[in-house]
Input
Amino acid sequence: MNRREALLSLGTVATAAAIAPVSAKEISGFPHGTAQSADHMPKPIRFGGYQVLTDDTDRQTLTAIFDRLIPADDLGPSASQAGCLEFLDDQLAGDYGAGKALYLEQPLHPENEEALMGSPQFLTTPKERYKSGLNALRAYAKAVEGKPFHELSADRIDALLMAMEAGKLDLGKDVNAQAFFELMLQNAREGYLADPIYGGNRDMAGWKMIGFPGARYDYRPYIDRRGEELSFIPVSLIPAD
Output
């Protein structure tokens, strides 16, 4: 598992908009008649402390894991430094954590579900999966490693994450370790690359790393400027002062 490639494997998003010393002319304004109503606008992160990840040990465990999935290096900050835990907490406190978009009813034939869908169906919400997964990691670390998960060496954490990724770590009958790894990796990626309005991608570090220009209204002035380095400064959905 190459942790930096785990993030970049999402594709070569916006690599044409590489950072360079020459700036493209910006355009301003937009047709206000096309603006969305307030109830359809993105909901910014709710600041003021953690809402779901209130346990110190849970946050320390997730920090240790996220920072091995996306470590700090000369390309950018680590996942936790970029605000991925704040992003995750806010998502778990809302509709995502409650599984509002998921089908959580028991299938008619559970034995066929994984074969048909290509992955197991979970009847618990993401919020519940994090709770049970973190509890299982806490118990495993205490019983097998003799210390809290976040106190393990980086190499040992890597080994455990690779075992989870391969489906070779037993976290008990109630936790699918491989699926829990995939959930954490997905959420770390999302936090690193989502618009900063949701709490992650602090200072737009993820966008700057891959050269993504952000939430710009109009690209028409640049369509014919193929191959040029436009040096776009990323733009967030966060309203300008």
